[in-house]
């Protein structure tokens, strides 16, 4: 065995050295799952965007690396009309489309491509709307683009005018999201003429820093540097995604040098990674929140004083230590501290079982028994909901509240937790899509989202709070919006529809020789600026 | 023989029909709604939910959906994945060679080691070899595969660095798949070192996948051999002065092989189950991992058609096993 592996090693070493001179600078990323496809618009998972939108495509605008600020992308600049309903985008001249074995572009990016990118998603009559049977545009729908976008018109080849039905400040952040990647109309026409429309999803053509080369299902995705990229050319020549679903195996691959960077390590492995001289670890607070949502329509949880008393009974520090193993921080607001308009002046409900007991008595609540719902799966904002629920259960027992832990299969959990009259409180969470506070507050806490199909699992409808959100949404002045959101957070804390639990920390382990990688608060993995030293 | 084959084939029809129903029903009795899973935490308005469910045909009654499935099946249409939107058959064909390659190597490993160990343990019954090998077989049989695979990775790939951690071939080799079998494709590619790389990537996963079948085969061979060794014809062969090795190999082993081959055939099903875990640990792009992902996403078309294809393969393998009995024991084929 030993002899055999030695000779194997020798052979591979030989192959390595033989191939070395011809080998370009190759960066290997051990990704966590397979992409669903390579067209960014029909999908919703971050894994898919890391493999499609980020390396291959560009949006009109993009998120500045490491932030949730919007910066120019394929649009060099844009103007907004006085009433906030007309956006005029000035496209970057000379932004080149990539080519592959079935397509060679004859022109650069134009207004036609932008219009096509909107219409194929928003217009059911567009021949590309359902170019694969069963394809839908869930993000476009979820971000309410069909109601928002009135028209997209070409002013000239490099100017596009988008008219909205009403003023909405987060619109520009929506455009920076992967689903609004600009795709080539000419490529679509070529494929339609050749009768293989599916290749639009299999062999992506974009304007981004990397060209797609090949995908071997569930195993490897290969990209090559795009020499014609309009931005700064990538420093690496080849980018490879080695799909490795198990976190422990990913770490072993990283340690063995089989890849340079990996996402989502197990919290239990963090210490080991920190101790390894060949590795380094980046960390950043995630753009997320985990919370316990009471059903505010059912007694006694309809009383804010009861909810606040329960919040006081739960020891959140203990949850951070035991469940997050320190990789998180206690949450006091529904939005994370890295997000603009975070109200740091707010004081959290302090853990105080005695006070909680007294407050419950004062509210006339005796022998309360309730359900705590714990999701069955690990989420980016919640490593172990069951364990969290157990800690809550014992905390609540101390103040005389009997809690029963319930759980359902994940799909059922999502459904049942939004059913009217649901008993007890649910552990839930959220990861931001576009860095706009509205994407947390309106989605999770507005009156509109308390209806069926929304995501307001506290069923909390506070008109004053919702009005503030509406005002903020229609105002494009960031300073004014900040004030409105800060005020909304004060109401939230007084009313306490949730116990805000935690904001988890994201970790990215990589080889010590990796430079230029910037963590994204949105959880994206992009490699256009990475390099390897040595 | 032809008649024997035809009867066997005839039995397959109702079995297959039964499997279509089980495969179709299985994923639907699991709680969870594929449409809602796609939406995640965000939720979906009831109108949008109804629209999507209608588009996918999931608003029809169960039996209607089943009939639709059967009709499409008869036309050779296995449906499209809800997640990737690609035809299930295309995905299956892209992934199956990887599973088959791993499975063949594992079953060869299990048989080539398991049978001799079982024979040796039987003829040296009660010896230290018998005791050690049968204890090892018991341990192997009870081994939690996931833990065992990770242990081997940490030891051989992490600490000793003898074998690669995961994947099918080193990432520096890149050639289009011809047969889908990496060992063959790497040879065809003509790239230096490609075959050695593919081979070294197969070592750990095939050991892990072979562990349980190996244990079962060794134990089964031993007990079958012990039984046969006590038969009159073996005693007669020994009594007439035939060399011991010939008695064991010809008279005993050939007769002991019938239950052993049954066991090996049954291990194909076990192998499929083992492949799910093995492929997950070793990032092996095969159908085991594909099924697991699809079940957790409630990707109905992939699960039902995938199960069907896997069941069909297991049935064909069992048919081949049945035919092999006939080769070994003429009495069976004349019955």
From TrEMBL, chain A:
Molecular function terms, GO-annotated: peptide transmembrane transporter activity
Any one Gene Ontology cellular component term annotated for this protein: outer membrane-bounded periplasmic space
InterPro entries assigned: Peptide/Ni-bd (IPR030678), SBP_5 (IPR039424), SBP_5_dom (IPR000914)
Subcellular compartments: Periplasm
Gene Ontology process terms (BP): dipeptide transport
Broad class of where this protein is predominantly found: periplasm
Keywords of this entry: Signal
Endpoints of the signal sequence: 1-24
Residue ranges constituting the Solute-binding protein family domain according to the UniProt record: 69-450
Similarity comment: Belongs to the bacterial solute-binding protein 5 family.
Name this polypeptide is given: ABC transporter substrate-binding protein
Protein source organism: Paenirhodobacter populi
From TrEMBL, chain B:
Domain ABC transmembrane type-1 span(s) in chain numbering: 96-321
Family annotation (InterPro entries): BPD_transp_1_N (IPR045621), MetI-like (IPR000515), MetI-like_sf (IPR035906)
Locations listed in the record: Cell membrane
GO CC list: plasma membrane
Topology versus the membrane: Multi-pass membrane protein
One GO molecular-function entry: dipeptide transmembrane transporter activity
Keyword field: Cell membrane, Membrane, Transmembrane, Transmembrane helix, Transport
One Pfam family it belongs to: BPD_transp_1
Primary location class: membrane
Residues that span the membrane, as ranges: 9-30, 102-123, 135-157, 169-188, 195-218, 256-284, 305-328
Family the entry assigns: Belongs to the binding-protein-dependent transport system permease family.
Protein's UniProt name: ABC transporter permease subunit
Species of the source: Paenirhodobacter populi
Lineage: Bacteria, Pseudomonadati, Pseudomonadota, Alphaproteobacteria, Rhodobacterales
């Amino acid at each position: 065995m030993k002899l055999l592996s030695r000779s194997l090693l020798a052979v591979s070493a030989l192959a390595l050295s033989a191939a070395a001179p011809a080998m370009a600078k190759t960066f290997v990323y051990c990704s966590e799952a397979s992409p669903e496809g390579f067209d960014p618009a029909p999908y919703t998972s971050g894994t898919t965007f890391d493999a499609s939108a980020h390396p291959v495509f560009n949006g009109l605008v993009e998120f500045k690396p490491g932030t949730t600020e919007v910066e120019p992308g394929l649009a060099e600049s844009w103007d907004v009309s006085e009433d906030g309903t007309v956006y005029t985008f000035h496209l970057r001249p000379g932004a080149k489309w990539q080519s592959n074995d079935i397509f060679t572009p004859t022109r650069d990016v134009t207004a036609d491509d932008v219009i096509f990118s909107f219409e194929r998603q928003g217009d059911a009559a567009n021949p590309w709307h359902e170019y694969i049977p069963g394809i839908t545009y869930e993000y476009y729908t979820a971000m309410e683009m069909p109601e928002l976008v009135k028209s997209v018109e070409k002013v000239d080849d490099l100017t596009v005018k988008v008219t909205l039905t009403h003023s909405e400040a987060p619109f520009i952040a929506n455009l920076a999201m992967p689903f609004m990647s600009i795709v080539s109309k000419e490529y679509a026409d070529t494929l339609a003429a050749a009768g293989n429309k599916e290749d639009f999803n299999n062999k992506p053509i974009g304007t981004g820093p990397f060209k797609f080369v090949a995908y071997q299902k569930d195993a490897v995705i290969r990209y090559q540097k795009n020499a014609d990229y309009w931005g700064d050319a990538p420093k690496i020549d080849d980018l490879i995604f080695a799909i490795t679903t198990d976190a422990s195996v990913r770490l072993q691959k990283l340690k063995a040098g089989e890849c340079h960077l990996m996402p989502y390590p197990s919290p239990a492995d963090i210490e080991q990674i920190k101790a390894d001289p060949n590795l380094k670890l980046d960390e950043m607070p995630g753009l997320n929140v985990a919370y316990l949502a009471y059903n505010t329509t059912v007694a006694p949880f309809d009383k804010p004083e009861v909810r606040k008393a329960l919040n006081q009974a739960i020891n959140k520090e203990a949850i951070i230590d035991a469940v997050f193993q320190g990789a998180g921080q206690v949450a006091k607001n529904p939005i994370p501290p890295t997000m603009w308009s975070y109200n740091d002046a707010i004081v959290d409900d302090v853990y105080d079982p005695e006070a909680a007991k007294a407050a419950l008595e004062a509210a006339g609540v005796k022998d309360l028994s309730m359900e705590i719902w714990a999701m069955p799966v690990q989420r980016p904002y919640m490593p172990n909901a069951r364990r969290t629920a157990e800690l809550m259960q014992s905390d609540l027992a101390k103040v005389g509240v009997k809690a029963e832990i319930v759980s359902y299969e994940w799909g059922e959990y999502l459904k049942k937790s939004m059913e009217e009259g649901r008993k007890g409180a649910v552990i839930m969470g959220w990861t931001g899509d576009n860095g706009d506070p509205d994407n947390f507050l309106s989605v999770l806490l507005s009156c509109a989202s308390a209806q069926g199909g929304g995501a307001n699992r506290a069923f909390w409808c506070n008109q004053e709070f919702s009005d503030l959100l509406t005002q903020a949404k229609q105002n494009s002045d960031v300073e004014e919006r900040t004030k409105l959101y800060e005020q909304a957070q004060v109401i939230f804390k007084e009313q306490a529809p949730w116990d805000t639990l935690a904001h988890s920390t994201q970790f990215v382990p990589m080889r010590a020789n990796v430079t230029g990688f910037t963590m994204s608060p949105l959880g994206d993995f992009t490699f256009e600026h990475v390099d390897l030293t040595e | 023989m032809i008649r024997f084959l035809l009867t066997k084939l005839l039995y397959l029809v109702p079995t297959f029909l039964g499997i279509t129903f089980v495969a179709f029903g299985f994923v639907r009795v699991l709680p969870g709604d594929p449409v809602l899973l796609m939406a995640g935490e965000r939720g979906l308005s009831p109108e949008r939910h109804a629209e999507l469910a209608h588009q996918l045909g999931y608003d029809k009654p169960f039996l209607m959906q089943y009939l639709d499935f059967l009709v499409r099946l008869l036309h050779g249409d296995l449906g499209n994945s809800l997640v990737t939107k690609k035809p299930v058959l295309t995905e299956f064909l892209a992934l199956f060679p990887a599973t088959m390659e791993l499975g063949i190597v594992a079953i060869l490993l299990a048989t080539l080691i398991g049978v001799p160990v079982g024979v040796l343990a039987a003829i040296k019954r009660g010896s230290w070899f018998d005791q050690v090998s049968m204890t090892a077989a018991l341990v192997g049989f009870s081994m939690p595969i996931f833990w065992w695979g990770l242990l081997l990775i940490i030891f051989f790939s992490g600490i000793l660095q003898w074998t690669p951690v995961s994947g099918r071939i080193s990432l520096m080799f890149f050639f289009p798949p011809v047969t889908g079998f990496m060992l063959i494709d790497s040879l065809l590619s003509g790239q230096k070192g490609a075959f050695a790389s593919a081979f070294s990537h197969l070592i750990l996963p095939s050991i892990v996948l072979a562990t349980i079948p190996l244990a079962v085969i060794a134990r089964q061979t031993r007990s079958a051999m012990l039984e046969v060794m006590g038969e009159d014809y073996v005693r007669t062969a020994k009594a007439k002065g035939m060399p011991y090795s010939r008695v064991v190999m010809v008279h005993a082993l050939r007769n002991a092989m019938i239950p052993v081959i049954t066991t090996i055939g049954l291990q194909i099903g076990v192998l499929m189950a083992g492949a799910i875990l093995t492929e997950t640990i070793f990032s092996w792009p095969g159908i085991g991992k594909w099924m697991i992902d699809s079940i957790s996403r409630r990707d109905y078309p992939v699960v039902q058609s995938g199960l069907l294809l896997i069941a069909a393969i297991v049935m064909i393998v069992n048919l081949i096993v049945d035919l092999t009995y006939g080769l070994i024991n003429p009495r069976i084929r004349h019955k």
